[in-house]
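Quarterly update from the structural biology core.
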Amino acid sequence: MYFADTVAGKAFSKDPAVVRFKDKYWLYYSVPPFQGKNGKGWTIGVANSDNLVDWTKAGELHNTGEAEKNGFTAPGAIVLNDKVHLFYQTYGNEKNDSICHAWSDDGLNFTRDPSNPIFQPTGNWTSGRAIDADVIVFKDKLLL
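Predicted structure, tokenized:
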């Protein structure tokens, strides 16, 4: 598998996550800021493939809501109940970066969780930042 997005002027597709959904492979990845971007900071790119070899860029997610205002990145993807769920981090908020959630019925257009951010570490045990989310199913529970 090889795919690199060139929208920022160089081949770059960081933090890839691939899922099989509705007879296609979907790739979600981090895209650095670029001139002409709709929104501020890092974003998440989307590509799809029928064979894991030939990829086509399908689009990008755009900043929505207060948590994403400075950017968002590092998607973790999982298919649950006929939807793609993304768990991703906010970016550019320094020690206040947190984990957010969104879901899609088609793999491209996502609805943000109204409770975003879904996880923001607080307390003495943490440096304050939550990054690089990934979710697995274990004993009928979702673990972050």
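Residues 14-143 form a domain with the Tachylectin-2; Chain A fold (CATH 2.115.10.20).
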